[in-house]
Amino acid sequence: xxxxxxxxxxxxxxxxxxxxxxxxxxxxxxxxxxxxxxxxxxxxxxxxxxxxxxxxxxxxxxxxxxxxxxxxxxxxxxxxxxxxxxxxxxxxxxxxxxxxxxxxxxxxxxxxxxxxxxxxxxxxxxxxxxxxxxxxxxxxxxxxxxxxxxxxxxxxxxxxxxxxxxxxxxxxxxxxxxxxxxxxxxxxxxxxxxxxxxxxxxxxxxx
Length: 207
Description:
One of its GO terms (molecular function) is RNA binding. Belongs to the pseudouridine synthase RluA family. InterPro entries: PsdUridine_synth_cat_dom_sf, PsdUridine_synth_RsuA/RluA, RluA_PseudoU_synthase. This is RUSD1 protein. By secondary structure, the protein is an alpha+beta fold. The protein folds into 2 domains: 10-92, Pseudouridine synthase (2-Layer Sandwich), CATH 3.30.2350.10; 99-183, 2-Layer Sandwich (Pseudouridine synthase). Helix content is 14%, strand content 30%. The chain contains 3 helices and 11 strands, in the order E-E-H-E-E-H-E-E-E-E-E-E-E-H. The chain has helices at 40-47, 80-91, 175-182; strands at 10-14, 18-23, 61-62, 72-77, 99-104, 111-114, 118-121, 130-132, 138-142, 146-156, 159-168. The longest helix is centred in the middle third of the chain and has 12 residues, at 80-91. The protein is globular, with a radius of gyration of 18 Å.
């Protein structure tokens, strides 16, 4: 997958009610910052100007979120009724989310359930981060659960890594990234949750 440009939006599925796109890594879904001209919103407006809804702030109704650094399938509703249906499906947890990731080190267990509660980090200089319960400055931690399944052991640039399937069973901000870091296997390329150590890879390996 190439870096995102205004022209290379990848469409996975399209119907009168929904578009599913393959969001690029290091790309915001939308932005109010004048200097961030390349977003998923701008890609959609460029590709489908006739589908943009002037009654919405960004022109499109995004059914869920993906982090700036995360790539993957993202569903966009094309009308209010479709957006309402999608909202109910996500709220009632009828949608199964699954991600592929490369994590540092060789994970020894073939499968595990990660149950660390996650809260907002209020420590100075870390307020953009989340943290697990018990961390100094961790505010309002909430129960979280993620499933991890080992797919393959290997190496990346000579260092041991594990390819894993991740399923968030709850929906806390940065949940998978925080949980992987908490078990000692941060996601490859996750600069934030590797304490600013993992800066070598060209992207964060979460899709």
